[in-house]
Design brief:
The chain is α+β, with helices and mostly antiparallel strands. The chain has one domain (about 45-170). The chain contains two helices and seven strands. A hairpin with a 2-residue loop joins strand 4 (about 125-135) and strand 5 (about 140). The longest helix has about 50 residues, at about 20-70.
Amino acid sequence: MLANNKLTNRRTNGYCANAFTIIEVIVATIVIALAIVALIGGNRAFSQTNGEALKMSNAEFLIGQVREMTLTIPVLDPETDDDVFGVESGESTVADYDDLDDFDAETFSPPLDIYRNAITDMSAYSQRIIVQNVNANDFSSIIADHGSDFVRVTVEILLNGNVVTSENWIRAGL
């Protein structure tokens, strides 16, 4: 009999005092669902940021390839000096380019590495190179070809035709 009294005392108004109510279960389910949605949203934002960082990293790598490729070649052609700005006759491929101004207004897709080999794994990217003479007293002022001993090299990296980043530097042709 005593055991029966304990069961009766634990129940009040037809429900067990030690159990959860349906409202408590619904509230707990909503809180857990909101936490899961927040985690998924955060993961998606992180993935997008990581993808953009990868694009920038690849673009900076490709700019470095151009800089290294052109670092040791002279600004002006060693044979024709300043007769021609751009590709001289007889220079039909990038392997023939023997001075910096040969790269003016060139776009390479797939991009090139420092040895002038195509990087076929990055075929969605392009390297656009612009070489311009600048005023010796004001590097932001562009002047006529062969107008000074200083050139600005601008490299733009494109991904599927859209500019990802660009960088420029000054070279002296002294």
